[in-house]
Amino acid sequence: MPDVAHLFVKLRRANKAAKVESSSGDEPLTHEMVGRGLNPKQGSLRVTDTYIVAGGVNAKCLLRATRNSLMEVAEFVHAESEEAGLYDEQWSITISPKHISRGNEKGFKVTIHYSACPKASSMRRDPHVPVALDRAKGVPGLMTILQYDQDR
User: Which terminus of the chain is less hemmed in, N or C, by CB atoms within 10 Å?
Assistant: First the structure.
């Protein structure tokens, strides 16, 4: 009987330690259609979003939401121009199991770090899509966002 209890403790620790991590890569990326920034001296924008979700994690959806919040800042910074955009983008996402009190649903804490440089676009429009979106790993299931916090 003690062996069974020991097995349950090991399984619980293994489940708690399971994380899903993904990123855009080691170097910042820029969409080809955006091109380079017009003002290289301008600093980068950084944001860290934390989501508590239930059911599953749609990482691509959460990355789009985080990037959209950076686009709003870029549009504010370049209010005089018709179009704003982002270049030298880089993101990382960490998904950790989190206990929630919603029946038998799985809970997750999702932390997204996103950085990019704002630019005033010339003739090219920003695609409004995170770079390297195909690298985002999620958790299957219907995602329900329970809590959202943003740290700039």
Answer: N
